[in-house]
Amino acid sequence: QVQLVESGGGLVQPGGSLRLSCATSGFTFSSYVMRWYRQAPGKERELVAFITSGGGTTSYADSVKGRFTISRDNAKNTVYLQMNSLKPEDTAVYYCNAYRPWYPTGDYWGQGTQVTVSS
Hints:
The protein is mostly beta strands and 119 residues long. It has strands at 3-7, 10-12, 18-25, 33-39, 46-51, 58-60, 68-73, 78-83, 92-100, 106-109, 113-117. Strands 2, 4, 5, 6, 9, 10 and 11 form a seven-stranded mixed β-sheet that branches. It has a four-stranded antiparallel β-sheet with strand order 1-3-8-7, with no helix packed on it. The mean pLDDT is 97.
């Protein structure tokens, strides 16, 4: 069955760094766009970053541009989110998403990992 398991979240001080990982199984990872979303309390889920199936194209929300880096290892079926210069407003649950808009389509989610930025 399809599994996406996020890890690497936790409590960090402002200005600190965290690296999130999303280990996947049960689908053809290398043919999926991988995305990181986040959802803060009382707010809608927002797209943070995505990376295309081959890793050649990445895109970021304006709020994280220059601070976060998305990457993937297709040999390990894993996507990463390196988060630097963290701010309190980055506090949220971060979700990994696998998305394939072409046939056969797919849209899979992880369970989320909490990131808290606080002094």
